[in-house]
Amino acid sequence: MKLSNQVAIVTGAGRNIGEEISKTLAAEGAKVALVDLDKGRGDRVAAEITKAGGEAAAFVADVAAETDIVRVVAAVVARWGRIDILVNNAAISDNKNILDITKEQWDAVIAVTLTGPFLMSQHAARQMVAQGSGGKIVNIGSTSGFFGRSRAVAYAAAKGGVANLTRAMAVQLAPYKIRVNGVVPNKIGSPVGKDAFNPDRKITNLRNRPGEPIDLARAMLFLVSDDSDFIAGTELFVDGGCAAMMPGEP
Question: N or C terminus: which one in the chain shows less Cβ crowding within 10 Å?
């Protein structure tokens, strides 16, 4: 197993991409802390991982609340003694135009989608530094962070921030043997904040199919395992090739 005896924290772990990442890491031997705002979702995923022979525990937390993050990091260390992997997956979207979004809606998206990864990384990295054995942090971005779009202005801004947060963290944490990378999905599984996948959702990419959570989970496993030991500060696009396409191409 690639992650034997390692401890991983996954935020937004109760459904879709976060759920599949958690199950994939657990199947490779990691002990997984499932962080989600919804207790029922977290408990369900933990039970499924345990039934499959893995080890996981659910932790209820709002990643926009620093007190919650401090509590969760302490609880994970108390349970398993260390933190080796952090996956910043939790996010919310606004689906608003700049002309009609309110400041409250803007602040809420930035708090969860950008400030959340910053705070989780800060507190998890401090633990990794104290351990002295390094670690891996992966931030989940979005193609929305690299291109303008007709809606979701706060989400696009937040994910753009996540991209450069990833680079800054990679530079600043490298001396402590902490590798930081990012993944950039496009329309994988259900939309942000939704439980159900819409089969009618328009998909345009080079693979001619919707992305599935396992597609991102496999990329995540690569980035948190020793297979990617020489990769740091990189944004890995897991988007079916859509970002490579010229606008207007069929």
Answer: C
State residue 92's pLDDT score.
96
Cα–Cα distance for residue pair 246/250, rounded to 1 Å: 9
Q: Which two tokens stand for residue 175?
A: 């001396």
pLDDT in tens, 159-199: 999 999 999 999 999 999 999 999 999 988 756 655 665 66
In 3D, which of 150, 243, 151, 149 has the Cα closest to residue 204?
A: 243
Active site residues: 155
Size of the chain in residues: 250
Q: Which of 55, 75, 78 is nearest to 67 (CA)?
A: 75
SS3 of 129-154: HHHCCCEEEEEECCHHHCCCCCCCHH
Please indicate whether residue 201 or residue 97 has the higher confidence score (pLDDT): 97
pLDDT digits (tens, 9 = 90+) for 32-41: 999 999 999 9
Q: How many CB atoms lie within 10 A of CB 247?
A: 5
The tokens describing 169, both together, are 């963290």
